[in-house]
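Severity: low
Component: inverse-folding endpoint
Summary: output formatting inconsistent between runs
Steps to reproduce: submit the following structure tokens with default settings.
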């Protein structure tokens, strides 16, 4: 039956090729208006028809000379011409509807939603109630039916950024059984356009194959934003999450409520967020359910762990080649904090062959977490138990975390990451701050939601008072949860009383301070850590700056102590700022240093350092101004007379690397940090030498080799700069000459005139 309706839909669309929206002149464009108005339309050929309300073709009416728009309405237009009918799409007009949210308007044959036999929103004629599961079975909304519709999206400024035909499906798991359901919109070529080409999530224009209109899942009758909120917290840890943008939804002119537009997790999601392309991607869900690609590599990962003792570092390192263990640790830390029971199976994880082939996890569907009365729940105990204690911690669901914690390296990183995240992103103060931000964003819009939504969903149980109570509930959770999480951490790993670390960073914008490879984003940092483990600290000044105050690479203290550290970034005022890393040839394991200054620099005693902590001391290298030094691992047969060559004892990574150069006082002079998805021979500085300290240093992947020479990019740029400076000097000379002439000529005339006057006086 579904194929019949889809075929009918495509038949109708097939008539649209010869006529488009642009062939109709509108007196008023679709959008938002404060007052009623008369809509007038003009089409050069054919007769205009329209339908609204139920959006059923058979209810079409001839379009009058003018149509009064005195309430929110969506008009679907057709043109009859030459014995054919052309659909022009739908046009939504909102009268007196004021919002700071996006607005989504869907036009669809009402029967496609609510007809007993073909409606995707109803139980259907063959549904029956299953007393075992306590749910209806064989219902329409569980079938994979897809119906044609026309969708419009208006952004926060009221601009229509999407207007196209698409497919629509019911979305969700058990939440499909609620009276209100989430929806999935799909762009397909057979509907006209195979992508939604718009800035749907306010993060730059991208093309989306699908997106979700989510009612917030299990949170549908409470906050309407819990999952959007909790996943936004996870994104602060660098984890993958679905982008979210709140909206009001209208269907056939009828208000349906506040929804959240969400990214659909598929290969297009991976490509949009990681620039991976769409091929060679595996996406899995829960217990190895394949959503894209295959489960082959994931099965290999699980098989390896079952057969090998991860307490042995060699085996753990092998696992690290197959999965991103830091990503997995951060993922688990957030799920444990949320006390998310759905973290068992309702999760997504992925890998891409075009990247590094490692599995990573997506924080997804967390609305079962943040239970108001669950802040005491010891999720860490449940999620690391080898014995199932409840429905949400089956052995297969806890397998990875349990086994990884057998390795001392992972355990240490997990404890330190837990401490860091609980001190920062998941600290009481920060979480409450983020709750208040969401409350402020949604509050006025929820007035609209609660005052209008009952019209469609009569069984809806929410109201503004209950909404505020739900805010209070998650706020209570946030006030208590971080401290209970610390206690659970200490109990699980037999940790002693933590010490308190205080960090004060002076002139913070002049460098980075990393704790366990996590950036400190505030000038005044306080956090709890454990004396059982050294806490790695990295202090990285920006180019042209030095760091004072702390020189060790780790921090430790006795239990219960308070340790205070002050780090100050100061500007270097030495000629060493002349020296820059200029180009990297990671295929041939060499790189080049350039003296962009006006004086000769002796590099002897300077040091080079890479990501693997290889340290090379430079000897016998005096670099004249405008000259290059090439540091190479392999021999270089053809050398340039004006270039100095130094053999190094480490290779240059072709994918993930940083290189640093330090002067004799061990001050950082320059640093290059890169992660590459493809290898193209050369990686080069992409700005003029003489202004590199004044703007952000950028780099360019290039296929040409120019070791020991100016980058071809610079040749034209430097010439342009030279010609510009020459022109400026020439213009200055002209101005100076003109000024001089304008001053001297009148003076000369004055002196001549005076001389003549004096001569005349003498003669008389």
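Observed output (run 2 of 3):
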């Amino acid at each position: 039956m579904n194929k019949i309706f889809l075929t009918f839909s495509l038949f109708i669309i097939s008539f649209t090729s010869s006529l488009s929206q642009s062939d109709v002149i509108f007196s008023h464009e679709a959008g938002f208006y404060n007052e009623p108005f008369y809509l007038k339309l003009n089409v050069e050929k054919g007769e205009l028809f329209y339908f609204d309300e139920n959006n059923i073709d058979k209810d079409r009416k001839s379009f009058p000379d003018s149509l009064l728009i005195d309430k929110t309405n969506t008009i679907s237009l057709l043109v009859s011409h030459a014995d054919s009918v052309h659909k022009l799409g739908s046009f939504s007009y909102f009268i007196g509807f004021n919002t700071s949210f996006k607005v989504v308007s869907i036009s669809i044959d009402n029967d496609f939603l609510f007809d007993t036999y073909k409606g995707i929103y109803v139980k259907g004629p063959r549904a029956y109630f299953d007393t075992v599961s306590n749910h209806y079975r064989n219902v329409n909304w569980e079938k994979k039916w897809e119906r044609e519709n026309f969708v419009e999206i208006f952004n926060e400024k009221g601009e229509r950024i999407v207007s196209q035909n698409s497919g629509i499906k019911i979305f969700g798991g058990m939440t499909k059984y609620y009276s209100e359901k989430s929806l999935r919109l799909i762009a397909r070529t057979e509907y006209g356009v195979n992508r939604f080409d718009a800035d749907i999530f306010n993060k730059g224009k991208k093309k989306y194959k699908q997106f979700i209109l989510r009612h917030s899942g299990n949170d549908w009758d409470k906050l309407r934003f819990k999952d959007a909120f909790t996943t936004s917290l996870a994104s602060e840890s660098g984890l993958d999450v679905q982008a979210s943008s709140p909206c009001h939804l209208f269907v056939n002119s009828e208000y349906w409520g506040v929804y959240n537009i969400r990214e659909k997790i598929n290969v297009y999601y991976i490509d949009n967020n990681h620039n991976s392309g769409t091929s060679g991607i595996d996406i899995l869900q829960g217990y190895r359910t394949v959503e894209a690609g295959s489960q082959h590599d994931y099965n290999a990962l699980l098989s390896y762990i079952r057969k090998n003792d991860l307490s042995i570092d060699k085996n753990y390192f092998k696992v690290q080649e197959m999965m991103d263990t830091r990503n997995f640790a951060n993922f688990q830390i957030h799920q444990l904090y949320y006390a998310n029971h759905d973290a068992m199976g309702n999760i997504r994880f992925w890998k891409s062959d075009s990247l590094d082939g490692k599995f990573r996890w997506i924080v997804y569907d967390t609305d079962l977490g943040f239970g108001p009365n669950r802040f005491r729940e010891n999720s860490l105990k449940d999620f690391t138990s080898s014995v199932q204690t409840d429905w949400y911690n089956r052995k297969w669901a806890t397998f990875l975390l349990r086994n990884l914690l057998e390795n001392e390296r992972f355990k240490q990183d997990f404890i330190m990451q837990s401490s860091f995240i609980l001190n920062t992103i998941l600290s009481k103060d920060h979480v409450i701050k983020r709750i208040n931000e969401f409350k402020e964003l949604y509050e006025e819009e929820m007035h609209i939601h609660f005052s209008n939504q009952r019209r469609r969903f009569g069984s809806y149980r929410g109201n503004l008072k209950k909404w505020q109570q739900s805010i209070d509930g998650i706020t209570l959770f946030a006030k208590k949860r971080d401290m209970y999480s610390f206690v659970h951490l200490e109990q699980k790993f037999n940790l002693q009383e933590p010490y308190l670390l205080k960090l004060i960073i002076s002139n913070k914008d002049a460098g980075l301070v990393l704790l366990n490879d996590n950036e400190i984003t505030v000038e005044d940092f306080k956090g709890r850590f454990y004396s059982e483990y050294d806490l790695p600290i990295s202090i990285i000044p920006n180019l042209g700056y030095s760091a004072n105050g702390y020189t060790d690479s780790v921090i430790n203290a006795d239990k219960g102590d308070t340790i205070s550290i002050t780090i100050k970034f100061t500007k270097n005022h030495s000629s060493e700022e002349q020296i820059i890393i200029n180009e990297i040839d990671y295929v041939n394991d060499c790189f080049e240093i350039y003296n962009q200054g006006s004086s000769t620099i002796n590099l002897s005693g300077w040091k080079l350092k890479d990501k693997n902590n290889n340290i090379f001391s430079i000897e016998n290298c005096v670099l004249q101004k405008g000259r290059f030094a090439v540091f190479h691992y392999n021999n270089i047969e053809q050398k340039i007379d004006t270039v100095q060559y130094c053999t190094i004892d480490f290779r240059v990574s072709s994918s993930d690397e940083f290189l640093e150069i330090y002067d004799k006082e061990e001050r950082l002079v320059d640093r290059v940090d890169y992660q590459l998805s493809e290898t193209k021979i050369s990686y080069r500085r992409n700005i003029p030498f003489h202004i590199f300290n004044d703007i952000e240093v950028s780099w360019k992947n290039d296929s040409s080799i120019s070791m020991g020479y100016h980058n071809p990019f610079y040749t034209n740029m430097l010439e342009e700069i030279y010609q510009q400076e020459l022109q400026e000097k020439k213009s200055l000379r002209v101005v100076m000459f003109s000024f001089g002439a304008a001053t001297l000529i009148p003076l000369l005339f004055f002196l001549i005139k005076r001389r003549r006057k004096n001569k005349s006086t003498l003669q008389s």
